[in-house]
Each structure stands twice: as structure tokens, then as C-alpha cells.
Design goal:
Largest sheet: 2 strands, antiparallel
Structural class: mainly alpha
Strand content: under 5%
Radius of gyration: 20 Å
Strand order of the largest sheet: 1-2
Shape: elongated
Number of strands: 2
CATH topology: Arc Repressor Mutant, subunit A
Number of domains: 1
Helix content: 55-70%
CATH superfamily: Winged helix-like DNA-binding domain superfamily/Winged helix DNA-binding domain
């Protein structure tokens, strides 16, 4: 008999197309789950320190955001890869005018 995958309920997470483009946020805020996950995972900020940065949040909200992230990590990773591919494409299609100007000035100095 196959084991049913149990999805955790996330009372502190909401998804509304009118808020942050429909991305999961901490309920009652515009703080995205992915922003909490990035601080925790990539920047090494502890949950307690995240609370220091967002004093209106409770620790259980941060933990629920992280739980939601880990439960849906594949989806978050897929969206991240898509956004990086789009960013690379846009950088090629629309080169930075500032970089071009800075390059001209650098040549003028030399």
C-alpha cells in the first residue's frame, strides 16, 4: 500500500493574486516566503535574527514560512531558474547604458 504524502497546513501563509504577484507571503504582510528563505538559506540569518529585522513578525510565522519553503522547494527552485534564464536573456537583449557610458569615460581617462 503506497504511503500518502501528507501536506502540512500553513496558517501563517497566504497566496493572493493581488499581493506580491500571487507569491506566497506571510499572512497580513507583504513579506514573501522566498525572501525569508533567502535570508535563512543563502545569507545564513537565523530565525531569531530575522525577527530582529522584522519586529512585527512572530517566530512561528518565520518557521511556517520556512516550512512552506521546504515543502515546496522544487517549485521555488524551478521559478528561480526560470527567472535567472529570463534575466540573462534580458541582459543580452538590453545591455546596460550605464556600463556603456562608464566604459566610454574609462577610455577617455586613459
Amino acid at each position: 500500500m503506497p504511503v500518502a504524502e501528507k501536506k502540512t497546513k500553513h496558517p501563517y501563509i497566504s497566496i493572493d493574486p493581488k499581493i506580491s504577484g500571487g507569491q506566497p507571503v506571510i499572512h497580513g504582510t507583504r513579506i514573501k516566503v522566498i525572501d525569508i528563505a533567502i535570508k535563512y538559506e543563502l545569507m545564513g540569518v537565523s530565525a531569531d535574527k530575522i525577527i530582529d529585522e522584522y519586529p512585527h513578525l512572530k517566530l512561528e510565522q518565520v518557521h511556517d514560512a520556512l516550512s512552506y519553503y521546504y515543502e515546496n522547494k522544487d517549485e521555488f527552485d524551478r521559478k528561480y531558474q526560470e527567472s535567472q534564464a529570463l534575466l540573462t536573456q534580458l541582459k543580452k537583449q538590453y545591455p546596460s547604458k550605464l556600463k556603456a557610458k562608464l566604459g566610454i569615460r574609462k577610455e577617455q581617462i586613459n
